[in-house]
Amino acid sequence: MRGGEGKVVGRTSKKQIQTHSSPQYTLRQVYPLIDTLLACGGLAKNPLFLQQHADIIGCPIILPRENESVLLGAAILGAVAAKRYSSLIEAMKALNAAGQVIHPSEDPKVKKYHDAKYHIFRELYQQQVSQRSLMAQALA
Predict the structure, then answer these.
(1) Distance between CA atoms of residues 58 and 4, nearest Å
(2) Residue 37 forms beta bridges with which residues?
(3) What is the pLDDT of residue 8?
């Protein structure tokens, strides 16, 4: 995930996840500058995975124009090595571009569904923490 001026941001902590009612709220509270996700690699070729993530997070997901990111990386490195470009940044700007954009669903039922699943996740997580404590006491 990226936030602000191209800065890579970290993951949400368990405490932050378990205290909010929806994944969109959690993301906006922890990383308010994130409004778009970038995807590449194998799972970026799975339309269902991408749509589900766009719906859950509530942000559009941008795919690269070139879906073979390893080949593109090799081409960028080769172009710099061949002195076609003077830097990796210059080559990346010239050879890489945004492709398809996956937008979150606007259907309110989809958001309601994912919010309900998130609520269940939070309850199950609390149960797991409680059960782990019980088992630790039994083994002590």
Answers:
(1) 17
(2) 61
(3) 45
DSSP, collapsed to helix, strand or coil, labels residue 35 as coil
> Pick the residue with more confidence: 140 or 104?
104
Q: pLDDT digits over 8-58, tens only?
A: 445 545 554 455 556 666 666 777 788 899 998 888 999 999 999 999 988
Contact 70, 81 (CB under 8 A): no
- φ and ψ at residue 31, rounded to 5 degrees: -130, 75
Q: Which structure tokens are listed for 13?
A: 């902590």
Main-chain dihedrals φ then ψ at residue 60, nearest 5 degrees? -70, 150
Neighbour tally for 22: CB within 10 Å: 18
CA distances in angstroms from 112 to 23, 30, 46, 99, 115, listed in the order given: 11, 21, 23, 29, 5
Instruction: Report the distance separating Cα 40 and Cα 18, nearest Å.
Output: 28
